[in-house]
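Late entry, IPE complex.
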Amino acid sequence: MSNTSAPRPDAGREPLAGHFDREIDLSRVPVHVACVMDGNGRWASARGLQRTDGHAAGEVALLDAVEGALELGVKWLTMFAFSTENWRRPADEVRYLMGFNESLLVRRRDELNDKGVRIRFAGRRDWRVPRRVLRRMDESEELTSSNKRMTLTMAFNYGGRAEIVDAVRRIVDDGLRAGQVDERALRARLYHPDQPDPDLVVRTSGEYRISNFLLWQLAYSELVFSDVLWPDFRREHLFDAVREYQRRDRRYGGVAR
Ligand code: IPE
Ligand code: IPE
Ligand code: MG
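Prediction complete; structure with ligand written out below:
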């Protein structure tokens, strides 16, 4: 029987300070938030701009989302920046995205480092990613490796299917017998086995799909879809998503609490 009249056990806890929100329960903030940053191209087209201008405009949104996550105390933030399928785009746009992600790192890594953010990457480091970009990725990971406040994982040349295939390859390389292959063995061979599964996934731009993001890890994530185009996304939208998350009942196949 539900007991709606009893005060919630967390009633009276300190609300999130500040002007933006009085309802987020800081004792139930998602530990890991993952975002599909989508809608840059449409944002630009709506303004008569180039698609690449939309990507450039997405930088402010990314940094504001990071700020918001830090304010909330989110420990893991994963952002989908470039998928294994995005190579299908026109060569100019792909080239732009490679250079843009590289320069974003160079411009932003010190400030992220100062905020205590550990930067990591998830994805394939294959020949298609320019060596220059790989170097910046390595440098940024190294610079921020001892930070503890939050881990920002950039999913770059990332595909959920590719990640599972890579894990299976490692299982074969490690010589496991069929009977030794279980969820634990596979999970241990994902790109970042230490990372908890996302509690909350936010996708912008009004598309209701996963687009090959974190397929293994999303098994029980709460999905929140927003119509906002990524360049317009701000921490308030993240707070809205967290509020929505806090209204959900996570059952993991069990029964309601
Ligand atoms: C997301 O915006 C950025 C990347 C996929 C790199 P899009 O470029 O997909 O923008 P839309 O979906 O075409 O509007
Ligand atoms: C997903 O967005 C990938 C990133 C945000 C980097 P896409 O725009 O590539 O996904 P689809 O094509 O709409 O499914
Ligand atoms: Mg898109």
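Residues 1-15 have pLDDT under 50 and may be disordered. Will revisit in the morning.
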